[in-house]
Amino acid sequence: VSTLAELGLRVKLDDIGYLTPRVQALLQFEEWKDINFDSFNWSAGITYQTSTRLGPIDFTLGYQHEFSDFNFFGGVGYQF
Questions:
Q1: Are 69 and 54 spatial neighbours (Cβ–Cβ below 8 Å)?
Q2: DSSP state of 65
Q3: Strands, E assignment, the chain
Q4: Contacts of 64 (CB under 8 A, 6+ apart)
Q5: Which of 61, 41, 57 is nearest to 49 (CA)?
Q6: pTM of the predicted model, to two decimals?
Q7: Dist CA 38 CA 28 (whole Å)
Q8: Is residue 5 a contact partner of residue 28, using CB atoms and an 8 Å limit?
Q9: Mean pLDDT over residues 49-72, rounded?
Q10: What's the pLDDT tens digit per position in 61-72?
């Protein structure tokens, strides 16, 4: 069983830009009777999103507790 929760607050910076601080929590276990916090993992990050001629793009800088390391993600979308 896996349970994932995410909480973020999207803040408008200007007409095309947004900043979103976020936290995530993950809890995994074999059966419902085995619930404990030994397998609890969390991560936190901040995402910048903006619109371009091609569509939305975003960049996220995050930290994952399980790996004790920072990571960087980017995404490009297409606006229909």
A1: no
A2: T
A3: 2-8, 11-12, 17-28, 40-51, 56-64, 69-76
A4: 41, 43, 71
A5: 57
A6: 0.73
A7: 9
A8: no
A9: 87
A10: 999 877 778 889
- The CA distance from 20 to 60, in Å, is 9
Q: Tell me which residue has tokens 């947004």.
A: 18
Torsion over CA of 52, 21, 64 and 2, rounded to 10 degrees? -100
- Cα gap 79→53, rounded to integer Å: 9
Q: Which residue has the tokens 């995050």?
A: 62
Structure tokens at 12: 């408008």
Residue type (1 letter), 76 = V
17: its two tokens = 């830009």
Only one residue has tokens 């030994």, namely 38
